[in-house]
Amino acid sequence: MGPKILTVDDSKTIRMLVARAFRPFACEVLEAADGVEGLTVAQRERPDIILLDLTMPIMDGVEMLTRLKADPDLRPIPVVMLTAESGRDTVLRIAKFGVRDYLVKPFKVELMVERVSRIIELKARNEVHPRVRRFGDALQILVVDDHPAIVEQIQASLAGTPWKVSGVSQTGQAVDSCGPTLPDIILISLSLPEGSGFALFQMFQSSVRTKAVPILALSVKTATEEQTRAQQLGFTGLVTKPIDSADLQLKITRALSLDTSHNYFQRRDHLLVLTLPANFNQLVANDICLHLRPKVCEAVDAGLSRLVLDLSQLKAADATLIKLGLQVIQLCAGLGIRYGLVGSAALGQECKNHEETRDWQFSSSFEEALAVLNGKTLTMA
Amino acid sequence: MIADLDELVTAAVTGLFSTMLHMQMAPVPVEPSVVNGEPHVAGAVGFIGRLTGVVYVHTTAAFARRLTATLLHLDDSKVQAEEMINDAMGEIANMLVGQIKSRLSDGGIRCVLTIPSVVRGSQFRIEATSSTEGRLFAFETQGKRIFVQFLFQPSGQTQN
């Protein structure tokens, strides 16, 4: 679960604010409304840090602190004061108890999280239990570039995805955009004035809230010096300008470890359909290969015993296609499942010209392939 | 220090609202703090020591609900319980008076704060007694007002 944070404050409002501030992190926030309750919870739960108010009913913060520091078991727990009282005398009096930090109300919750993260290690929830995200999820992408045309290019490049791209031109706006909800990924132009793109990256990396968000550098192809610097600083990846749609999607997919299998594999009429997209190339083939065996085995495990390899969007058979096709056929043979091929007559004719694909039998539609599969076995010898 | 009260209160109010509520409060001319039948909520925090008194922070119940929602990052509709609004108004008063008290203490006027309390009603009026001085401040943001009423014993009567 992560570290335990105990907030001791008579104001439920403050306790709710504290709980909300730490919600994005893998930690448990415990609450107490006064010093007596605070000591009880501290003894029972042994929190990793205590955020303590001063003025409270029943037992105030000073008395709780006195008792806490007198208890050998509780003494090591770091205490951060979170109080409306900031007078010099009060601060000096409290400092004698060995508190680790002193935050004054009113306060910015981001500052509180930052200060606490200096004392205990905070990890974003998705860092501890990463959720498998799919290519089809509605991702939020933040682009920081002072050229609106680049933001527009990126939006156009990703128009075929459900991803939402928002653009800002200044680093301050980028920080504001990471307010209550963080983007899933950030793209920062390295050519922002006065190296501010690098400074922004370092700021995001040093903040406990944003350090888990992947950040891609945007750079002109020939600007190798700034690309090297970005690599050294630890940017998640690099996207070169002008923007190439396929490259951009791939970089984002990799940076977020997106599950892309749904782009190619679907279940239909009790069989597994593997569809190769019109932009099929070596990168796509590699991506499909990553999912091929697990998806087919999963389908077999679920009781499916037929597969359709849909090549209807392809115009030509190149070595990459042939290699992948043979891999699919071999896997089907190994698992004892039947398969059918869907493709145009032209593609079928082209396949007959290759030694490896001479025996491939194509159906002109999914329905035809289904009928063939229901009628006879097409497994190659 | 008390002579600087206007400045102290203005700094405390504007600082509090911009930091925690992202609202820009501006001082406006004070009108008589007569509550004209509209439900109001007042958060109050007292201070005892070389200066003794109490500070009320009050506004309409509707705006108090909005302040609570903003403070907790909730929709207004999610803030139904009066207890939630009371607590938020008490904490706003606490943070406000805490800032003023800290500056007073640094200036040699030492005092301690009481825990917050809340007054609700449609017909109440906050008035100083004959032995108490009162100062009223008004602030506005987007047409909504809050009032800060500072009641204290004149220096001759405060504790030492």
pLDDT average of chain B, as an integer?
86
Number of strands of chain A: 15
Work out the largest interface and the residue count of each chain.
Answer: A-B, 25 and 31 residues
Number of helices of chain B: 3
| Mean pLDDT score of chain A | 90
Largest sheet of chain A: 5 strands, parallel
CATH superfamily of chain B: CheC-like
Gross morphology of chain A is elongated
Q: Over all CA atoms, what is the radius of gyration of chain A? A: 29 Å
**Which structural class is indicated by helix and strand composition of chain A?**
alpha/beta
CATH topology of chain B: Chemotaxis protein chec
Domain module count of chain B: 1
Number of distinct helices of chain A: 15
Q: Can you count the beta strands of chain B? A: 7
Please explain how this structure is put together.
The complex is a heterodimer of chains A (381) and B (160). Chain A contains 15 helices and 15 strands. Chain A has 381 residues and is of the alpha/beta class. Chain A folds into three domains: 4-125, Response regulator (Rossmann fold, 3-Layer(aba) Sandwich); 140-255, 3-Layer(aba) Sandwich (Rossmann fold), CATH 3.40.50.2300; 261-375, STAS domain (Transcription Regulator spoIIAA). Chain A has a five-stranded parallel β-sheet with strand order 2-1-3-4-5, with helices on both faces. In chain A, strands 7-6-8-9-10 form a five-stranded parallel β-sheet, with helices on both faces. In chain A, strands 11-12-13-14-15 form a five-stranded mixed β-sheet, with helices on both faces. In chain A, helix 1 links the parallel strand 1 and strand 2 (28-32). In chain A, 36% of the residues are buried. With 160 residues, chain B is of the alpha+beta class. Chain B has a single domain (2-25, 40-157), classed as 3-Layer(aba) Sandwich (Chemotaxis protein chec). Chain B is built from three helices and seven strands. In chain B, strands 1, 2, 3, 4, 5, 6 and 7 form a seven-stranded antiparallel β-sheet that branches. In chain B, strand 6 (133-141) and strand 7 (144-152) form a beta hairpin. Chain B starts with a helix and ends in an 8-residue tail after the last strand.
